[in-house]
Sequence to fold (331 residues):
Amino acid sequence: MPFGLGTAAAGLLLATSVSTAATPAPDPAPPEAPSVVPAFGAFLGSGPEGVRRAAGLTDWLGGAEPTVGHTYLPGDLWSNIRGRPGFLGPWAEWRAADADRLFVLNVPMLERNEDRLTDREVARQLARGAEGQFDHHFRALAENLVGHGLADTILVLGWEMNGTTYSHRCAPDPGAWKAYWRRIVETMREVEGQRLRFDFAPSRGRDAIGWDRCYPGDDVVDIVGMDSYDQPPGHDFDDHVTQPYGLGFHAEFAAAHGKPMSFPEWGLFRNGDNPAYMRRMLEWIEEHRPLYHTISDYCPHGVWHCGANPGASAVFRAALAGSALPGNALP
Fold:
């Protein structure tokens, strides 16, 4: 079973009754189904170093093993987006070692993904994708994943599409973006043996476009994720929840579409070492039970690999190591 928040409290609650001679005892109530414990992990590095560091994180957490491995395909060239064997191999070995593990892979939708292309060029490339000109790259990726024993990978496709950072952004042409996403998913699902799941993961807040305008349809989305850091928009965690396109909207949107939630990226940022944020985010995860969550574990966002955040790190460590149970105050 995956480790996660509240692991130590998971179990079956059995109802009991007392019988008397005058009043027959009612039939025992059936046991409650155990709640789903969110799988957790951390981004520890893109390549083999990310695999090697997982054991160290487990030690730091007192033996609580991260069951989610998370990395990103390079978005510079199509040859890298197709998934080179040297890149996928170490992750395939990690995944194969334990049936409970999940492999989460962020997949760019376009090459030159961080080259600051103009909106006009982005729109042109999205139109090409929607026409099928890039199908062969994604078919090759699906074949490479299946061939490496990674057929059940969760693909965070075109992440943070509502922003301006990446070439695979949605705002320049939402219609073409949605058509292109659909084409990618349909192409990859045609590959024999695949059991891939597709995670639609905007960043928190509206940013350049309301991210619901980019949603490509329930039939081509398996998970509704969100990347959320301790930074604007929003002054505090309550703002993160209630703002337009915030955490509250995310939870409602996922429920309305019958999809599990996820947090592929989250962590500290503009407000520095913020134990209050860490506590509230972990409580939000505990309450809403995403399928998985992976903190970005490098400075300024992280906990184990970033010595700049000792207060927030203590909160994270206590919660994930199981020393802070649901309902108890985190440090």
In short: Confidence is low (pLDDT under 50) at residues 1-36, 323-331. The domain at 36-320 is CATH 3.20.20.80 (TIM Barrel). The first strand starts at residue 39 and ends at 43.
